[in-house]
Amino acid sequence: MSEAWHAASLERIFIENRLYQLIEGCKSREEAYSAVDKGLEPFKMRLRREVTLEDVQKLTELKFIRISRYDSEKADNEIRQIEEDLKSTQYDLDHLTEYAVAYYERIRDKYGKGRERRTELREFDSIEATKVAVTNAKLYVDRAEGFFGIGKSMKDAEFVCDCSDIDDVIVFTKDGRYVITKVSDKAFFDKNIYYIGVFKRNDDRTIYNVLYRDGKNGAIMMKRCAIKGITRDKEYDITKGTAKSEILYMSVNPNGEAEVLKVYFKPRPRLKKVIVDLDFSTLAIKGRQSQGNLFSRYGIHKIVLKERGTSTLGGQDIWFDEDVRRLNADGRGKLLGEFKGDDRLIVWTSKNQYYITGYDLMQHFPDDTVLVARYESDRVYSLCYYDRGQKYYYMKRFTAEMSDKIQDFLDADADFICVTDRAGAKLEITYKGAHASRPADVIDVDEFVGVKSHRAKGKRLTTYDVDRLRMIEPELPPEPEPSEDESLDDGQLTDASADAAQRAAAEGKASEKSALKEPLGAKPAPGKASAGQPSAGTIVGGVEFEVERPKGDAGEMIDPEQLNLF
Question: Which residues pair with 168 in a beta bridge?
Answer without folding.
Answer: 182, 199
